[in-house]
Amino acid sequence: MDASSTPPAAPAPAAAVPAAVPAAAPQQAAPAPVRTSRARRLAVPVLTLGAAVAAFTYLGVVDPNEPGHYPVCPLLRLTGILCPGCGGLRSAHAVAQGDLITALGANAAAVAGYVAFAGFLALWLVRAVRGRPTPTIALRPVAWWGIGALLLAFTIVRNLPIGSALAP
Questions:
Q1: C-alpha span between 134 and 149 (Å, rounded)
Q2: Distance between CA 82 and CA 23 in Å, rounded?
Q3: What pTM did the predictor assign?
């Protein structure tokens, strides 16, 4: 092989030329937090409270134990299996009437949900009055799985003869 048959050598890479660094922009102060009025902060939690009170008032007046007022649970109608929500309207009716024992008998899990919602709403209202941010429900995945497991166990037990006390 002679020198004329060899391919030409690749050119050497050019030296890296530093890019022009723009002059640092003067730092701007962070914008001041927007102050909202107390009425604006309270609007959503108060409206949520109003909706919950209206729903419980309606359930207190219109008895779900009388047929024809509310639809039947589709799972119960098709399979005869009580879902975790079966009896929830009857328990809300009992809570609205002030009968906690009947409410727990209709659906204890729903009553626990009403209590949790009331606690969250109270916290939300207090934080809104104080101008604090809206609370969030930040549970770890293991807690959500635990809640799901409890609801599954509740559903299974209330459908067994041994758990007939949990059936509405």
A1: 28
A2: 70
A3: 0.70
Cβ 83 vs Cβ 167: under 8 Å: no
Q: Which of 132, 121, 131, 120 is nearest to 39 (CA)?
A: 131
Q: How far is CA 136 from CA 17, 124, 166, in A?
A: 51, 9, 31
For 41, residues 6+ apart whose C-beta sits below 8 A from its C-beta are 128, 129, 131
Distance of alpha carbon 93 from the chain centroid: 23
How many beta carbons lie within 10 A of that of residue 121, not counting itself?
A: 16
Give the chain's end-to-end CA distance (angstroms, integer). 97
User: What are 69-109's pLDDT values in tens digits?
Assistant: 888 888 888 998 898 888 899 999 999 999 999 999 999 99
Residue type, 75: L
The answer to whether the CB of 37 falls within 8 A of the CB of 128 is: no
Residue labelled with tokens 């799985």: 145
Distance CA 90, CA 69 (A): 12
Task: Please state the φ and ψ torsions of residue 128, each to the nearest 5 degrees.
Answer: -65, -40
Task: Taking residues 158-164, report their average pLDDT.
Answer: 87
Check residue 59 and report its DSSP letter: H
Selection from 59, 78, 54 nearest residue 70 by Cα: 59
